[in-house]
Amino acid sequence: QVQLVESGGGLVQAGGSLRLSCAASASISSISLMAWYRQAPGKQRELVASMTSDGSTNYAGSVKGRFTIFRDNAKNTVYLQMNSLKPEDTARYLCNAWSSWMNSWGQGTQVTVSS
Q1: What does each C-alpha distance from 29 to 20, 58, 95 come to in angstroms?
Q2: Which of 10, 15, 20, 38 could make an S-S bridge to 91, C-beta 3.0–4.6 Å?
Q3: Integer distance in angstroms from the first to the last C-alpha of the chain?
Q4: 48, 59 contact by CB (below 8 A)
Q5: pLDDT per residue over 16-69, tens digit each?
């Protein structure tokens, strides 16, 4: 299993930006899918953005055009650039690494967007 540690969350005003980082304990270059999820209190966990090992990306409709997922294989880190943040983006953001042989989650980082 790969250990994942998220960072970069915080409190930001609506319209602001944050960049989340997900540092992995081992190489991510061969991991099939790296993704960011979020979970707000009382709500189900939802997929925010994902990236395959060949660079294909997928976004939730609610964040498309505002969020960007990208990875730095040399640093074993996946990022989530979040722009034009809205109060409804408030949630705990979790990093996930999936391959056929493993499924790892980080502890998450809290993002709070004030109106």
Answers
A1: 19, 18, 15
A2: 38
A3: 39
A4: yes
A5: 999 999 999 999 988 999 999 999 999 999 999 999 999 999 999 999 999 999
Q: How far is CA 84 from CA 17, 21, 39, 96, 105, in A?
A: 6, 18, 19, 24, 26
Closest CA to 79 of 20, 10, 12, 37: 20
Nearest CA to 13 among 110, 86, 92, 89? 86
- Candidates 80, 96, 92, 91; CA nearest to 4 is 96
C-alpha span between 113 and 26 (Å, rounded): 32
What confidence tens digit (pLDDT) does each residue in 79-109 have?
Answer: 999 999 999 999 999 999 999 999 999 999 9
